[in-house]
């Protein structure tokens, strides 16, 4: 028998209510979690997701209806940014410690993890550029990571830093025009 997690609430009338966590639809990021503000995206694959604290919630949108797929807790680190790949069912996300993780939405597994800085900076935003990822960090660095074809492992496990730029001003979001080459 599979173990279930339950959420228990107590109403003003002191009545106890239990709900199966696996069937609950989480609340979108609220004002008490401002670090999750950039941690929401809707992928071309038809899947939407958002982070609540250190948990990412995945939903399928079919005929205008939201269907919960699953939620995954990634530990104690606050998820601060996430972005789906434009074509593949892959998502990159960053946390408050500066980690970047690459998630396979279908297999529900981590493909790769990169820590460009030593836990002293937060990932603010992420953009995909083909198979490369560009990430903006709170220490005013913007980093582009790409696949190294000379490493004999799976595609995203070969991620390495292609360039690292120190910005002269503070930015909180990045975006690129996909039509410019």
Short description, anyone?
The protein is an all-beta fold and 181 residues long. 0% of the residues lie in helices and 48% in strands. Strands 3-4-5-6 form a four-stranded antiparallel sheet, with no helix packed on it.
Ordered list of secondary-structure elements with their pairings:
Elements: E1 6-10, E2 16-20, E3 40-42, E4 47-52, E5 55-62, E6 65-73, E7 79-84, E8 90-95, E9 100-104, E10 109-114, E11 123-129, E12 132-137, E13 141-147, E14 159-166
Antiparallel strand pairs: 1-2, 3-4, 4-5, 5-6, 7-8, 8-9, 9-10, 11-12, 12-13, 13-14
Features:
181 residues, mainly beta, four-stranded antiparallel sheet, 14 strands, 0% helix
Explain the overall architecture.
- By secondary structure, the chain is mainly β.
- Helices cover 0% and strands 48% of the residues.
- It contains no helices and 14 strands.
- It has strands spanning 6-10, 16-20, 40-42, 47-52, 55-62, 65-73, 79-84, 90-95, 100-104, 109-114, 123-129, 132-137, 141-147, 159-166.
- The strands form four sheets. It has a four-stranded antiparallel sheet with strand order 3-4-5-6, with no helix packed on it. The protein has a four-stranded antiparallel sheet with strand order 7-8-9-10, with no helix packed on it.
- It is globular and about 45 Å long.
- The N and C termini lie far apart (54 Å).
């Amino acid at each position: 028998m599979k173990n279930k997690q339950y959420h228990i609430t107590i109403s003003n009338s002191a009545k106890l209510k239990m709900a199966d966590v696996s069937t609950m639809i989480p609340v979108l990021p609220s004002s008490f979690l401002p670090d999750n503000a950039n941690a929401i995206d809707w992928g071309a694959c038809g899947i939407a997701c958002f982070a609540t604290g250190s948990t990412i919630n995945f939903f399928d949108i079919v005929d205008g209806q939201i269907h919960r797929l699953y939620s995954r807790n990634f530990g104690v680190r606050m998820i601060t940014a996430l972005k789906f790949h434009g074509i593949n069912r892959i998502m990159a996300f960053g946390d408050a410690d500066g980690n970047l993780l690459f998630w396979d939405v279908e297999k529900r597994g981590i493909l790769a993890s990169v820590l460009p800085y030593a836990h002293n900076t937060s990932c603010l935003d992420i953009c995909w550029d083909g198979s490369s990822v560009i990430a903006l960090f709170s220490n005013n660095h913007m980093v582009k990571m790409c696949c190294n074809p000379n490493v004999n492992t799976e595609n995203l496990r070969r991620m390495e830093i292609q360039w690292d730029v120190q910005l002269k001003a503070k930015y909180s979001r990045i975006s690129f025009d996909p039509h410019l080459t």
